[in-house]
Design the sequence.
């Protein structure tokens, strides 16, 4: 019910994590279809980069204005901070305050004095729920929770609540490895005359390091949905669940998955894995190239030949410039089942060949030995 500096920082982190989710699961996937030349109707989704820019913009963002207010000479107060935020962010569509309401001739009693409001998540713009194929977006009503009202009182004090340099140096001088690890800024060799970083700048730097780490990985997501506000078991509030699904961008994600392809792989690894399923590609593909838009590869031609010999519907496949796309997991499972059966056949064939070779070798050895013994016996006789 009351949101201060701590909740603002938490929501900022949530927005950045949501940005990673949007980029990796919605935007990047659709861009890959375009890069590979796959026929695709783009699915509209809300990109929260405008909210992240409102908060973290280096010159006009809320965090930048907060740091500037903490460093300016004179007494800082909530009113001066709100005036600075109004000058920098008042024209932003996701920012609201008493001043913006006055300029737009709006009256909102739910926005108290000394507060500002940020419209988080999709809110006013989104896709029609329940759509099975890509289509144009429609306007959705702003539901409770999409807009968060922050009490600006205490923002300046909490942003400058720093540990004095001499205290961190005293703790670092304890020569305990744990304490030195917790207060590395106390190292005299790292001493600096610059002003210590504010809480907001430290949070921004930490979030930036986290984002770089996440972008370098291949993350998997587990989305947790709160079924009710009272934490009661076996109680499901459909409106609350639908709101969370909508704000988390899961509707758009499901639409992209349903309209897109569940599996994609480069032609080379795919051909190496499944080439034993076709006599023309086993043990190696000797055919020509496949031309795709003026270019192509021998492996792409091999994959096309391989799949043409299998009972795979044409609508399940899409050939990109460098990758093969399979729409349904059922098709991939069928390929895996065929591969396992073929591997068992090949293993049986290899075993039979090895056993035959061993038997022939032993028979030939025995035959040569018998001939030699018989020759020696006849010579002796």
Sequence:
């Amino acid at each position: 019910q009351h949101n201060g500096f701590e909740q603002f920082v938490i929501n900022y982190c949530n927005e950045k994590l949501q940005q990673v989710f949007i980029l990796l699961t919605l935007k990047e996937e659709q861009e890959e279809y375009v890069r590979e030349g796959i026929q695709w109707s783009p699915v509209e989704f809300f990109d929260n980069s405008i909210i992240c820019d409102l908060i973290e913009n280096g010159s006009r963002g809320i965090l930048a204005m907060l740091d500037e207010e903490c460093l300016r000479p004179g007494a800082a107060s909530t009113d001066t901070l709100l005036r600075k935020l109004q000058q920098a962010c008042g024209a932003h569509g996701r920012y609201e305050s008493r001043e913006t309401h006055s300029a737009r001739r709006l009256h909102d009693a739910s926005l108290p004095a000394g507060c500002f409001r940020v419209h988080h998540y999709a809110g006013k713009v989104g896709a029609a729920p329940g759509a099975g194929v890509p289509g144009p977006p429609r306007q959705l009503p702003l539901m409770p929770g999409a807009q968060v009202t922050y009490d600006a009182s205490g923002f300046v004090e909490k942003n400058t609540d720093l540990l004095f340099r001499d205290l961190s140096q005293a703790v670092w001088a304890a020569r305990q490895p744990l304490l030195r690890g917790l207060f590395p800024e106390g190292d005299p060799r790292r001493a600096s005359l610059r002003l210590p970083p504010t809480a907001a700048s430290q949070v921004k730097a930490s979030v930036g390091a986290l984002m770089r780490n996440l972008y370098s990985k291949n993350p998997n997501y587990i989305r947790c949905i709160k079924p009710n506000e009272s934490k009661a078991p076996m109680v499901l509030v459909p409106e609350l669940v639908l709101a969370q699904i909508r704000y988390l961008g899961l509707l758009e994600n499901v639409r992209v998955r349903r309209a897109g392809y569940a599996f994609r792989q480069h032609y080379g690894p795919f051909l190496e894995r499944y080439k034993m399923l076709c006599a023309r590609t086993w043990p190696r593909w000797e055919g020509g190239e496949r031309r795709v838009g003026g270019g192509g590869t021998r492996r792409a031609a091999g994959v096309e030949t391989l799949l043409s010999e299998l009972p795979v519907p044409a609508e399940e496949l899409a050939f990109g410039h460098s990758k093969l796309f399979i729409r349904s997991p059922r098709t991939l499972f069928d390929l895996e089942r065929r591969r396992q059966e073929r591997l068992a056949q090949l293993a049986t064939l290899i075993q039979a060949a090895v056993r035959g070779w061993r038997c022939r070798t032993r028979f030939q050895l025995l035959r040569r030995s018998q001939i030699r013994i018989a020759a020696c016996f006849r010579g002796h006789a």
Q: What stands out?
A: The radius of gyration is 33 Å. Residues 107 and 366 are 106 Å apart (CA to CA). The beta strands are 95-97, 115-119, 125-126, 138-139, 147-151, 263-266, 317-319, 323-326.
